[in-house]
Amino acid sequence: MLAPSNSEEDTVNEIFVTVNGIVGTDVQLTSGERSNRARFRLATAERYLDRASNQWVERETVWLDVICFRRLADHVAASVVKGQPVIVRGRLRVSRWESETGPRETLEVLATSVGHDLALGKASFARPPRPESAPPQSTQPATDASGQERPVTDVA
Prior knowledge:
Elements: E1 15-23, E2 28-31, E3 36-44, E4 47-50, E5 55-58, E6 62-69, H1 70-79, E7 85-99, E8 102-116
Parallel strand pairs: 6-8
Antiparallel strand pairs: 1-3, 1-7, 2-3, 3-6, 4-5, 7-8
């Protein structure tokens, strides 16, 4: 039986979002103990058509930190640059900390996927090469020194 948790870290309802916007910073790739991490800022602003003036109006720009891990981090660092339009899917969270001026908050998306927004341009896709695989196993039966077949007990 699971015990109830009082920790803010243990969330029951995670919020998954899909956000499109413009990459606002260079991608920063860092290597950690467990995996690589890529981080960049994403600017997104809602636009709407003001019917009275028949003009597009942009609302306030919202800035998000996008954080990617493992292979996604490597691929984002190799593929995404400042100024490009992207679509990001991931888990939304609020990061809180204390600064010299008082408490601060940042919206973060822990990305599960990142891609270029093809409504605004063209891109090409290249699958990375597969890692070296183990050598194929022999299909010949194992024999002992006298040439007699013996059961295989050690499988790599």
